[in-house]
Write a structure and sequence with these properties.
about 60 residues, mainly alpha
Length: about 60
C-alpha cells in the first residue's frame, strides 16, 4: 500500500484496521465509501471518487 493510500484510509476510514490478512477487508469498506460519496449527480466520478478509486486500484493491483 502506498503512503497516499495509507493516509487516505487514516483520513476517510479511520475505523478500518489496516493490519489485515485479506485485502477484501479493505476493499469492501472503500467500495462502499466510493458508492456513498464518490459520484456526482450524473454518476460520473467527482474528485473524491477519482482519489478513492486510485486508492482502490492501488490496493487491488498490489495485493
Amino acid at each position: 500500500m502506498s503512503d497516499y493510500s495509507r493516509k487516505f484510509f487514516e483520513r476517510e476510514l479511520p475505523e478500518v484496521s489496516l493490519n489485515v490478512d485479506d485485502v477484501n477487508k479493505l476493499l469492501e469498506p472503500l467500495y462502499d465509501l466510493i458508492m456513498y460519496k464518490g459520484f456526482d449527480e450524473n454518476w460520473d466520478y467527482n474528485s473524491f471518487g477519482e482519489d478513492a478509486q486510485n486508492v482502490y486500484d492501488d490496493l487491488y493491483n498490489n495485493n
